[in-house]
Amino acid sequence: MEALNATLSLLATILYLATAGAIARSLARREAPNRALSLSLMITALVVHGVLLHNNLVHAQGLQLGFYSIAILHAWLVAILAVLVNAYRSVQGIFLIAAPLAAIELFVGSLGQASTPVILSTGIQMHVLLSILAYSLLSIAALQAILVGLQEAALRQHRRQLLLALPALQTMERMLFELIGIGFILLSAAIISGAWVLDDPLAQQVAHKTVFTVLAWLLFATLLIGRHWRGWRGKTAVRVTLSGFALLLLGFIGSKFVLELILN
To answer: In the list 16, 66, 143, 186, which could disulfide-bond 99, CB 3.0-4.6 Å?
Structure first.
């Protein structure tokens, strides 16, 4: 099984990097990327990655929700969400960031030692998976925010290459706030479910995660309100989105990293 998982990890990593490489090569030639090719490579990578994810995550004793298995799961969700974004609107530029990110996270997750599968209640499982989905969707929103920032800079400096892989700036900003809106709803549901199923959301091992998550929720709420009432966009939207995601990163990944790999 270990040899099979190593092969699957290597193949998926190569496919992710090949996707980003194909798009980068087209942009270097000042050509529009081949959408069919990039989607085919990403979907094939997702299938291979999905098999590996099942082998790492699902066990007879329960779900393996350790740091490394969650890294593999998050990489898969980021990749599949990037594909869904492209199914909705051609934003191949997002593959330039999402595909290498998925490859790196998959590689790191595959290097780690598997943790012991744990038996969790249905409520806890739903809370954990909902939290990961919210985090993954807001990860895509953060990548979209980076692209919006790069697109604005490219327009100001008259650099056209990246623009070949992106729709109009207004469309990109609208998609950014759509992603943030959906992610905010999922994050709200994750916070509510955590308050419902956890005996003490401010217990020592989860207090920092709770605090960072609530702070991120407040930032995203402020951004959505500012967008509705003040028409916030551009640099303001990019900065607030990345700040909110940084808080989630500290709370979700940072706390798990410290608890499992340092304190343990």
So the answer is: 16
Instruction: Give the whole-angstrom CA distance, residue 209 versus residue 250.
Output: 8
> What is the model's pLDDT at position 247?
92
Higher model confidence: residue 255 or residue 225? Answer: 225
Cα 174 from chain centroid? Answer: 19
Cα atoms in the 13 Å half-sphere on the side-chain side of 99 = 29
Calculate what percentage of the chain has a pLDDT beyond 70. Answer: 86
To which residue do tokens 């030639």 refer? Answer: 29
Residue 63, beta-bridge partner list: 58, 118
Closest CA to 176 of 252, 89, 72: 89
In which region does residue 62 sit, left (phi positive, over 0), alpha (psi from -120 to 50) or beta (all else)? left
Q: Considering the entire predicted model, what is its pTM?
A: 0.87
Give dist(CA 40, CA 137) in Å, integer: 22
- Residue 109: CA count within 13 A, CB half-sphere: 32
Please tell me the distance from the alpha carbon of residue 103 to that of residue 75, in angstroms, as a whole number. 7
Angle at 128 between CA 126 and CA 129, to 5 degrees: 65
* Maximum CA extent, the chain: 57
Locate the domains of the chain by residue range: 1-114, 120-264
Confirm if 45 and 238 have CB atoms less than 8 A apart: no
Q: Running DSSP on this structure, what letter comes out for residue 63?
A: E
